[in-house]
Amino acid sequence: MLLFHRQSKSPFMVNPYPYFSWTPQNDRFTLFHRNHGIHDGPGGKVYTNMYDLLLDAVFTSMWKLGFPDVEIAVGEVGWPSAGDPGMTQTTVDNARWHNLNILKKAGSGVGTPLMPGHRFETFIFALFNENLKSGSIAERNFGLFRPDFSPVYDIGIMRGQSNIDYVCNNGINCGPIREGGPCFDPNTVRSHAAYLMNFYYQAKGYQSYNCDFSGTGVVTFSDPSKLDSH
């Protein structure tokens, strides 16, 4: 299979769920909170979150099989916002925090200890809760939205589109993010919003209040993609 991916130049898709590795003892490590980290003795690497560890475990296996050049993509990853009685880890706050950090990792280009500077194509599971799905309550509650289209929580997707609409309706040329424009790719709400928010801030005279966007933007003098999650 890996040979096929190499020959077709297609990514090997994996589902690295920190959720399934959660225990009360590794709560902070699994949920991207500040922790002492786990030291990989033989490799000398330090891991501060379960997500990086899972991705590097896949990479190590591929490397041992002779396929370190095959790209890795995240086919699905997520965290449930509700669960059966006693499942204290399945909360809206945990789901939101986990997925916010997954998105931050996906867009930062920081990579992992064994794959520094790598950017992974990532798909969040899931867009909608699956209210008709059999099994545990947790299995039905991985969605960002309920079946009636109301949001379970927001990880910036809706706010990003609102920011795009605001900028485009207030005198800023949004042509560069339209199809065929120089800033169309990557074609994501997050990337388009980031470009337009920055452009708006500059066009309006570099005033900090023009970078706030209802608390979704902030002026920074360092590259935010290099900052660690806390």
Walk me through this protein's architecture:
This protein has 230 residues and is an alpha/beta fold. The chain folds into two domains: 2-154, TIM Barrel (Alpha-Beta Barrel), CATH 3.20.20; 158-220, no CATH class. The chain has six helices and five strands, in the order H-E-H-E-E-H-E-H-E-H-H. It has helices at residues 2-8, 27-30, 50-64, 92-108, 157-168, 189-203; strands spanning 12-14, 38-40, 45-47, 72-77, 122-124. The strands form two sheets. It has a three-stranded parallel β-sheet with strand order 1-4-5, with helices on one face. The protein has a two-stranded antiparallel sheet with strand order 2-3. Helix 5 crosses helix 6 (189-203). GO terms for molecular function: hydrolase activity, hydrolyzing O-glycosyl compounds. Residues 154-229 form the X8 domain. This is X8 domain-containing protein.
Summarize the structure.
The chain is 30% helix and 8% strand.
Q: On the 0-100 scale, what is the average pLDDT?
A: 93
CATH superfamily label of the largest domain:
Glycosidases
Gross morphology = globular
Query: Which structural category do the helix and sheet elements fall into?
Result: alpha/beta
Strand numbers in spatial order across the main sheet: 1-4-5
Domain unit count: 2
Strand content: 5-15%
Q: Architecture of the largest domain in CATH?
A: Alpha-Beta Barrel
Biggest sheet record: 3 strands, parallel
Output the number of helix runs.
6
* Alpha-carbon distance between the two ends: 37 Å
Topology (elements, then pairings):
Elements: H1 2-8, E1 12-14, H2 27-30, E2 38-40, E3 45-47, H3 50-64, E4 72-77, H4 92-108, E5 122-124, H5 157-168, H6 189-203
Parallel strand pairs: 1-4, 4-5
Antiparallel strand pairs: 2-3
Helix pairs in contact: 5-6
